[in-house]
Design brief:
Elements (H helix, E strand, L loop, with lengths): L6 H6 L10 E4 L10 E9 L2 H10 L3 E3 L10 E9 L5 E9 L8 H10 L6 E3 L2
Length: 125
């Protein structure tokens, strides 16, 4: 005998909104960070408190939503896993704006794809 699961049960089980959970740290207001950047944190496993604390420890502004990408040259997506001893695993998208570190779109793309053991993937805003 086959058992069927009602369609409503699938809805209750958490299809959710279909949108990934994203948090961010905006380093642009920090006097301790020389680059114009904001980092989105996606696919987070581990402690959000550890991510938030790392952000705030360098003067970044923590948010429970994504970075505002307005005016960004683009972003660099890569996997990361650190943040003290909390064993946090996360995918980061570092959004960069033109400034001292990145003089042009092309320079930012080259830096991204050459960074993170050549695993960085460029993301247009």
């Amino acid at each position: 005998m086959h058992k069927t699961i009602p369609f409503a049960l699938f809805l209750v089980m958490g299809c959710g909104t279909g949108q990934p959970e994203i948090h961010s740290c905006d380093y642009r207001p920090s006097p301790r960070i020389s680059e114009s950047s904001c980092t989105d944190y996606e696919q987070i496993t581990g402690s959000l408190d550890a991510l938030s604390a790392a952000c705030k420890s360098v003067g970044g502004a923590w948010s429970d939503g994504p970075c505002d990408h307005k005016g960004a040259l683009g972003g660099c997506r890569h996997k990361a896993g650190y943040y003290d001893d909390n064993r946090v695993r996360v995918t980061e998208v570092e959004w960069w704006w033109q400034g001292d570190l990145y003089k042009s779109y092309g320079a930012a793309v080259v830096n991204c794809t050459a960074s993170f053991d050549h695993t960085g993937q460029w993301v247009d805003p």
